[in-house]
Each structure stands twice: as structure tokens, then as C-alpha cells.
Here is the input.
Amino acid sequence: MHSELRPIELLSPAKNLACGVEAIRCGADAVYIGASSFGARAAAGNSVDDIARLADYAHQYGVRVYATMNTILYDNELDEAYQLAMSLYRAGVDALIAQDMALLEMHLPIPLNASTQMDNRTPEHVRALQDLGFRRVILARELSLDAIREIRRATNVELEAFVHGALCVSYSGRCYASQHCFSRSANRGMCAQFCRLAFDLVDGEDNVLLKDKHLLSLKDLNRSRSLEALMDAGIGSFKIEGRLKDVDYVKNVTAYYRMEIDKILSRRHEYRRASFGREHIDFEPKLEKSFNRGFTEYFLYGRTEDVSAPATPKSVGEPVGHVKSVRGREIKVGGLAAFHNGDGLCYFDTKGHLQGFRVNRVEGNVLHVAEAVPELRLHTPLYRNYDAAFVQMLSHKSAERTLKLDLLLRETDSGFLLSGTDEAGRSLQVSFPDEKQPARTLQRPRVVLELSKLGGTCYEAGVVSVEWDMEYFLPAARVAEWRRTFVDKLLAMSQTVSPKPHAVSETDVVLQPVNVANHVARQFYEKRTHEPVESAYELRAPQQGVLLMTCKHCIRYSVGACRRYHRDGTRLSEPLHLRLPDGRRFSLDFDCKQCEMNVYDAN
Here is the structure.
């Protein structure tokens, strides 16, 4: 019956080995990590040795490890990419997250997950990826529940969706602004975060409608209240964004989503957890305490809110009250929040700019700061974007994960046999030839106690028992040695065996060629479409007037001038432009039929 239940996976980011281990301790069913190269976050690379150590640790609990190789590849990188992929396979990685079709054509012995960089938005596209041999498809963040349901009805491939973290304003894989403006390709893992810059919004008559606002910067994703709806729509893996985030972020967010998913699994028995074990967490997770720009469910229920955060691209944190009085370097706060020495607080000044200060000393609701805080007025809302006590707590070991292990020691003709089964389903029997020494007193409780000493391993004792016809004397050191030998052998069985990828389809599966940067990918598409394929943007000569982004976020909607949603709203003189402080301009085109906004170079 267990195998018939649909597994639900919580997938956490790992900036490095330490982050990956802590994510697993806090309840991740899988982690994704960047290798030394070819990952979409170039600053989050790791050695194969570290990834192998992470895989060894993860597989104890049935946790999977996915390595990111989701950049586009150049011809001179194909051999290196193949060698790296094979090294990751040998290191125990369970799947590669890929964007470039050259990896599919390499016929690797490891499954491939189709990166969200492949712009996975339609049932036809996802079905094609399924037919081509991808084990999993990571869906575009912009999809609604209805769109996800439609994809699920049309496919049987594993579906993964982002549920938390930073949002790209453009459809993933279709953003060329960083490459165009700064010669840093987002499809090569070097995004310069063009979308977090401050712009002026200029109308068709060159009037400045908004000045110095982060008009393309979005709030952070938070779908913690919609996990059950996503499960029922067909999502099997819930992904937390954040391979550049530090360990305190990973611990807090992972623990929170573990808690929320477990609440659902406790009453929805058609679903099961994708890995094994029990978490022992010594802190109360709270999403607002980790980096965030404010939260949105994005377009999960359609266009229901403004998803942008134009005031600042920085973390605002959690609301903690308002200013009651300011006397020099003393700030009295109204509200119920408890403060700590070293807290970081922020507020928006009269110009709408984010300002911040550090708390030196706390006396109840009176905060003492090192120097007077400018433009801090009465009733100004305050936010805490650095909780010193919370971060300090998370800096120590604050979570552990254990597996139940049942053990049975019984006598044999030649000695003793220790057998056991853990909750991951691993079973083992180990014989220990030994001279039997009859004992005059009761020995079983002492032997059971010694077998139960599983500290320092991933196990905790379940049912531990001893079966023999008479009492035997066994020295504690001998029983401890047997226990250690047994556990070592049992854990050696924990290497996860990844399902083999099925063969690449040779049929004319139609996929729109995009971001083609090497001859193998080019041949892949041309063999199926029978048409010439355009080279990736990164390989073309610089052009003016090119499309840089396609966005579900709409500035016209944000300013209350949408012709569909704000029929009585403002009517602007168009075309609208975004302008950087250095004078560079970008024109906005609104495709109301698709409910999308396009950003073009206008220089």
C-alpha cells in the first residue's frame, strides 16, 4: 500500500555542503546544489568531493541530491560538461537539472530534470520534454493552478514548482537584459540583476511619472498557504529558491515548510513523504524573520494583486511596531514585539527610501542606538530585517534528524545473530561467532540498553529485543562493537539507486528552439524541426531595439492604468519607457491578449 501513495518532496537549496546538511536536518526530502561550473548561479559552485559527501549524508535518509548544470553550453565546453556530469553521477547525485539539449544528447546514465530556464509553461511543451526523456519538469513560476492542472492532465512526468524565494521578473530563460546591458548572461549563471535597479517611468510626452523606483523588482514568493492546492493540482516537488542564501535562511525556511507539509500529510493519507526520518528542531520557524521583500503568491490564482516591490529590492523583514517617540538616541516603540541587542531595524523615510539602523541596547520597548536616526518621525512603521537572537540561535546546531531502527539479537548454534530494519526499509543480518558464557543473573536488560546506544549515528532506537533460551554473559564492549559493525554495514546499503533515464525519442517532437549555443543542441532541434535554428542571444552581435524580457508582471497594472482591470483608472500617454540614471532607455509594450509586458531596448 505504501508504494501506491504519491510522494511529496520538499526541495531545499544548498549553497554549499554545510547548507545542504542543515537543510536535511530541518526536513528536506531533497536538496539541489551547484557543481564547480555550469550552474545558473555561478557564485554557488561546489567541488565534486563536497557533493559526494552531501550525497552520502542525504542517502541515509532517502533524501535525493540534484546538481545544477542548467546553463547553456558553448562548443568548447561540451567535453568538460560531459566529464563533470559523469563525475557527479559517480558521486551519487540522483539527477541533473539541465537546460541545454546537448546534455540530453550525451545519453548520460543519470536522469535529467528540465530546468525552469527552459520556459516550461504549456502542456504541449511539458509533454514534449516528457517524451524526450526528462524525468521531471520544473514549471514556470508564473503558472496558475488551472494551468498546472491542465499540464498534469496532459502528462505523467514528475512536476516540480517553486513555492518560496526570490522571483525573476521575466519568464526564466527568456531574459537577455543582463547580457545586453552588462555583458553578463543570465543563461550562463552570471545575472547582474537588471530587474533590481531603480528606474524612472517616462510617458510618451517625456514626463516623469515615477522617479527612482525599482519598477521591475518583485516581492518574494510565498505559497505556504497553497501547498495542499498545489498537491491536488499535481505538483510532487515543492522547491525553495535560494542557492545564494546563507545557512540561517535555509534552516528557517526549510523547517517552516516541513511543518506545513506534515500538517497536510497527517490528514491526507493518499500522499506520503518522499524521504524518511523525524526532525528534532529547537527553534520556532517563522518566514518573516528571513530575507524577504514582502510576500506574494504571484499568479497562482491569476492576477489578483500587485506583485512588485518598487520601494526597495532589499529585505524589509517583519513588522515590529511603530515609533511612539524619539529623544536623541532613544527610540520608543509601540507594539508587542520583543527586541534584542544587535537587532537591525528599517523604515521608509518621507521620500519613500528604505533607511536602517542597528540597536545597541534594549530596555523594554525603548531602543538605544549609536547615533541619531535621520527623518524618523512619530507613527512611522518599523520593520526588523535582522533578528540578532534568532540568527544567533540558528548559528548553533539547532536541528537533528533521526531514523527509527529496530534491532533483534538472538542466539545461533555458533554464537549470535544481530538483525534489524530501519524505517527507510533497509534490513540486515550479521552473524557474530562467539563462545556462549552462561550467566547466573538477568542479562537481557543490560544488553538491550547497550544495543540502544545509537548516539552519534543517524539512528534512534525503536524496538530492541533479545531472544535466547537462557541468560548469557556478554561484555558491554563486545555488544557495543557488534552494534557499531551492524550500523556501519547497514548504512553502507543507503546509496540511492537512481532510475535510469529512458532513451531519447527520435520522433519529431516539436520544441521551440531557444538559447542554442552549441552544435549538438543545434543538430538536436534541426533534426526534429527540419528548419534552421537561430543562435543564442549571447552569440549574436549587439543589436538595438531587441526584446529583452517578457514578463507577467505589468507596470501598467501596478500604476492603476490597466485597460482590463482598471477600466475607470488612469489613462497614460504612451508609449511608456523605463530610464536608468545614466540615460539608457527601455520601451514597454503591453500584450493585453496574453496579459504580458515586453521590455525592449530603446537606445
Observations:
- The first strand starts at residue 6 and ends at 14.
- The two ends are 63 Å apart (CA to CA).
- The chain is about 25% helix and 25% strand.
- The chain has a mean pLDDT of 94.
